């Protein structure tokens, strides 16, 4: 944001919030509709920016960025009235006559810090939730997707209410400057190291925090049924965006005896998706950043390939016969390499998952209800998808978020509305009914009677 970002940005937005600007439902609806128009009218410009920044093919931009966001907006518009409506609360007989209710009210001014791998979705999906909840918001898109960041800044400025929304561009310095200001809530998507820094900064005010951090998402293949379909689903989910998806399968735990068949089916699926040279296909994304490319080359020597335009690229790679060291603990691959780790029985696979930290997602291919229930019962994760991948994060009615080291807090749909809201309780009693039992002095008989009464009617 350059020289304009020398003074605190929050006070002007807080003045707008305190004026009541964002509270009416009609205002929220208009802002959501305007955000939808921005995505529709600037679709080609946004797709070109994302492709230039992160090498994502146009079809992937549509499915994982703009169409996803339009779905979130439509869902919020359909359900906003119900979300905002006060909810009645039951009252014990002891507190009658009275009425009780609670309502979701906006938090105030919130900060949303996005990530580079989905540079539109990971900034604007939280914004949908923040708008629906009635907040003012400062957006900090990733500096590693500068063209997309510029498009977001220009679009928010022209389509949304400038009194309530602001985009701050820049890098870590600008992010740290923002975190020194007092926000009511900070929503962050990114690495664990940066997430810890966000938490420390938010604790100074204090502000509530949502952290979406990622982790090593396992995929279990426990059955040989429909193996070609299983392989196509895994290959699609893993190599979408060149493996740079926080909920992509990081490794596959495959029942012993199925590994070679699964590997062959995965390679067949890759050829059907991207042609005989998948890494050179225009429909395949690229690994973003020389540092990430170098890290992956060092971790998996010999997998890099010469790209058509010069330089190095990483094609989709199936790492057959990987040892158990590729499962559970360790750093997330976050790239187009998929290790296949064999196991003997489902308890062994569960044990390898539990040796690591809680992932954002666990995937399981099995038609055995007993296996399904055991995996659900004996593991922890932000979400689970059985016999498919990724879609648990695409359904607006399902909360999306992490647990443990993969983050905390959830959004999408109603979960996002609630994440950016505070529940305010209201109780109303008539002033005419006033029993003397509640007041001192509490003699022995009166105290015994009150103990009995509380035990009966709580």
Automatic annotation (TrEMBL):
GO molecular function terms listed in the Swiss-Prot or TrEMBL record: aldehyde dehydrogenase (NAD+) activity
GO biological process: aldehyde metabolic process
A Gene Ontology term for the protein's cellular component: cytoplasm
Domain Aldehyde dehydrogenase, residue spans: 15-270, 307-426
InterPro entries: Ald_DH/histidinol_DH, Ald_DH_C, Ald_DH_CS_CYS, Ald_DH_N, Aldehyde_DH_dom, Aldehyde_DH_NAD(P)
Species: Chlorobium luteolum (strain DSM 273 / BCRC 81028 / 2530)
Family (UniProt): Belongs to the aldehyde dehydrogenase family.
Active-site positions on this chain: 212, 246
Protein name per its UniProtKB record: Aldehyde dehydrogenase
Record flagged with keyword Oxidoreductase: yes
Source taxon at top rank: Bacteria
One protein family per Pfam: Aldedh
SUPFAM superfamilies to which the protein is assigned, alphabetical: ALDH-like
Protein keywords: Oxidoreductase
Signal peptide: none
